[in-house]
Amino acid sequence: MRIPRIYQPGLLPPGAEIELAEDAVNHVGRVLRMQTGAELVLFNGDGFNYPAQIVETGKKNVRVKLVAANNNPVESPLRIHLGQGISRGDRMDFAIQKAVELGVTEITPLFTERCGVKLDAERLQKRTEQWQKIAISACEQSGRSVVPIVHPALSLDKWLAQNTNELKLTLDPWAKDTIKTLRPVSALRLVIGPEGGFSDREVALTTQAGFVAVQLGPRVLRTETAALTAISALQLQMGDLA
Q1: In terms of domains, do 219 and 111 share one?
Q2: Within this chain, do residues 56 and 104 fall inside the same structural domain, yes or no?
Q3: Cβ–Cβ contacts within 10 Å for residue 10, how many?
Q4: Residue 208, φ and ψ in degrees, nearest 5
Q5: Across residues 172-178, what is the average pLDDT?
Q6: Are residues 195 and 220 in the same domain?
Q7: Total-model pTM
Q8: Domain total for the chain?
Q9: pLDDT tens-digit map of 75-110
């Protein structure tokens, strides 16, 4: 039987007994209904797994004893910073979840001219917190122990203007280059447009910012499909996807 993996922020010294955080308590106690003596694996984002055993359970608390600290070498050698145009409904949640499963290291949600999503400051803060929780949950499921950062949302213009030496890629079904023609790198930025695609002005901005247009094939993909297909192809070409 698979041992559950649970995110627990903070230091996790082997041999110590700690109280699980509220979110972890809810998952362990109310969802999984684990009892005293059960085994689980904690992680805090530092790249290690921390095997632990439950020593006490209650309605609002779960106490565990940390057994060890084990390096978890599952991170891809390819660092991908995904700039994802914000989409409506649960498409954005889906894109973030699957991107984390596929090994991205950073995600920045992007406001674009055609994103069709209007959020005030309070709602945007709640969405950002929810996106980070989705990233954590995807790490729990996929076996990662380094949690990708979901940055606060930016306008496309501001994200493109950030100073970086990484390879920069954008998708264009009519581009002459493909991912197969790219030279191998260890870090890159990938920008994906929203449901309505980039405007002509935004396409020009990506070119001015040094983004290289590549194609995935002759078909036009939906925004969430495009992101996951591109990440998979990049991991196959330069990363650790077999």
Answers
A1: yes
A2: no
A3: 9
A4: -65, -30
A5: 89
A6: yes
A7: 0.94
A8: 2
A9: 999 999 999 999 887 999 999 999 999 999 999 999
